[in-house]
Amino acid sequence: MSNQKDWKYEVPVQKTEKTQKIPDDVLSELKGLKGKMFSQMKKEKIDCPVYRKELPFLVCFVCPNFKSRIRGIVYCKGVPL
Known about the structure:
Layout lengths: L8 E4 L1 E2 L8 H6 L6 H6 L2 E5 L4 E4 H5 L4 E5 L2 E4 L5
Antiparallel strand pairs: 1-6, 2-3, 3-4, 5-6
């Protein structure tokens, strides 16, 4: 078994008071999500190491680099887009 990890970055999720602006193309990919968890995720952001800017978590969630999220940490593959 290999000990090699398949992600490059560990990015903490930050909570905000206001709902983040989610682009329409991202919302269309997430049309099946609803409820309390979805509304909580709309109030989260990350400092994206790939785009080098602050992004809403839901944009990160649909990114091809998204590996997983465990206990408030996003595991990102870090492949240039």
